[in-house]
Amino acid sequence: MTVVVVPHTSCRGRCSEPYDGDVPGCRCDNNCNASGGCCRDYDDVCTVPTQQWECTALRCGETRLQQSRCHCSADCLAAADCCTNYKHVCHGEREWVKDECEDLSTPTCPSGFKQQPLLLVSLDGLRADYLQTWSALIPVLDKLKRCGTAAPFMQAAFPSKTFPNHYTIVTVSTAWRGRREESRRCPRRQLVRGGLTLRVVSRDNTPLHDALRPRRH
Fold it and tell me: Which parts of the sequence belong to the SMB domain (predicted)?
């Protein structure tokens, strides 16, 4: 009886497989580059996936690579470490961002919530036009804008209590209090030192805000 051994030609399912000199064909062990015996797809199958954050058709069903940022192996669901698009790419499920907007005319609370949750997305003040110009770069934000409520002409307030350029809810709360945003004070942030007062104006010399002197304790 003759046993025919078929030489290996791919690293599919063989990443980090220990070298066996009795098995013909190319290698997929961690030292194959040094010997020049790696399979042609070694980098694509065993190296590149460890640097990716998403699944690709090539990665679906891969052998688990411990050094990967996320996984596309068959056991990733049980281990709860799949890449975010695993079900979409490897199981054909429709992506949430491509679904139609849900009917929210009758508010309902998701399981585990006593009240309907509210997602508030704020962007850096220097990116006030981000959703109009670059929204395609982050499809999730585009979906939230399309299916939720957005304020396209809302401009950031500088500075805020949390970050100098942050687009914050303070803008709304200040308007609600009946004060002009340009006169808003920021008591939680020490903007001036040495007894100096900072005054910021726009190009047409319109005051934007006056920073307070540091409080004395």
Answer: 7-50, 51-95
Look up 162 and say whether it is catalytic.
yes
Each residue of 182-193: pLDDT tens digit? 444 443 333 344
| Residue 11 in domain | no
pLDDT in tens, 82-119: 998 999 999 999 888 888 887 777 767 777 777 777 77
Does any domain span residue 124? no
For residue 55, give its domain range. 32-97
Q: What gap in Å lies between CA 171 and CA 155, rounded to an integer? A: 8
CATH number of domain containing 91: 4.10.410.20
Distance CA 43, CA 45 (A): 6
Q: Do 190 and 148 touch, CB atoms closer than 8 A?
A: no
Per the residue annotation, which of 9, 133, 162, 197 is the catalytic one? 162
**pTM for this predicted structure:** 0.52
Least confident of 1-15, 75-89, 110-124, 197-211: 197-211
* CB atoms inside a 10 Å sphere around CB 11: 26
Q: How many domains does the chain have?
A: 1
Residue 142 located in a structural domain: no
Q: Angle at CA 100, nearest 5°, toward 99 and 105?
A: 135
